[in-house]
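Q: Predict the assembly, please.
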Amino acid sequence: MILLWGHPDERPFARVLQALRARGAEPLILDQRRPLAVAAGGTAVHTAGGRWDLADVTAAYLRPYDATRLRAVTASPARTALTRHARSAAPALCAWADHAPALVVNRPSATATNAAKASQGLSIEAAGFAVPPSLVTDDAQALAEFAAEHGAVVAKPGSGVRARVALADLDDPERMARLATCPTLFQRHIPGEDVRVHVVGDRTFAVRLTSDAIDYRVRDAALEQSTTELPGDLPERCVALARALGLVVAGIDLRMTPEGDWFCFEANPAPAFTFFAGADHVAEAMADLLHAHRPRT
Amino acid sequence: MIVIVSGNGHRPARPLLRGLGGARLVTPRALTGPGTRCDPADLTAATLGTRRGPLAAGDVTAVLACLPAVTPRDLPHIAGPERGFVAAELTALLALWLQAPALVVNRPVPGALCGRGLDGDDARCAAMQAGLPVAAPTRTGARLTLVGDRILPATADPTAAELVRTLAKTLDATVLCARLAREPERGWCVQGVEPWWQAADHEATTALGALIAEGAR
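A: Predicted assembly structure:
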């Protein structure tokens, strides 16, 4: 049995589900917007549709959100019950997913590496990728010294909270004053072209992203995408990086400088691959992986 | 210097705070800048800005990580809409800072600054995968604490002690507080885990001091 846990209307979830059904699979869907209970210390899952045993799961694709914040939950007349279900089921499902003999895309503990980007950067460097020089600071003087050494500097969230990457403006007194309220991750700005690599098992799917924006994800940014082949041993290195982080599927953000040097910014454990060119190939590969997996006996 | 990092959620027991002479308590609320400088390439030179002044990694011999993450509730001084973001950023900062070479009890893992051994579901699943007997959690049961290789209380049943040691190895925990149940058919079973720092009595604190002294050597 294949398990999908998350929000079925969410694009990556829906796309993988579609690809699985095209292969004749009918996965168990645990919809975060519906009541769900997991037996404490056990593997029994109860939904409105019936009772299931997680021990029968051979492969799982997890894209859980904080269910207590989903609009479908907060706007529901049954929000109290749904919130209670979510609060008890999520930790139990995460614990199961961390230890299950099934193929899990991705295990929650591995997913958490992206919640501390500077810390994840140490693992990325250990896997042989260059990471931009970085500094986490709340100190304007330290930032000034860092910028004096490295030139243009970008500010980005050091956690998993999504926010845009922007050039740091050291001459903005208001921003510098706000810096003291929260340590921020700064990195040397690396000029060049972005390449997003989706690792799916031992396969890679690369997309070249051309944009004038510092952060190509910014809405209204002029962005051109095209699928591409990675040069040299980069595909193998990306697969090795994902494995080192415990990820079966990852969205790895690379940048190639005009001099031909490659830098790695991060490995996203829950890539929203439908945003990128060639998403169908990624979804097909994920469905293949989930569908073909048979647990070791 | 011994540093105890703790949030509002699970405050350390008094014997722990008082028993480790000179230990410095650092809370998320005390992490107010400026003064924080953490270069991932040189964590030995990292400094945390705190209300009581900078805390240099070089001055720290051991860190007791007594919180899984910084939460918005730890930051009442931050404006409401910003609390969640600042909490996530401080968690990321501490995850990096705890990679510094000092002795850290327990070493952080992705998603938990205090390492594993706090989440009952995780502990039971890990125990099951390791083939250890598991029982449903109840309010009763025996509580055993492992500190390094010492089991407390020292009078604990040797079979129960061995079960806790095996569980700690599975969770990669140096210090662990486990709750066990004794069932007629199966003997000792893992029920769950508790924050070791809340269960730390005088005896556990003394053992921890010895462990730190040993590690510092």
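The longest strand of chain A covers residues 203-211. The first helix of chain A runs from residue 11 to 22.
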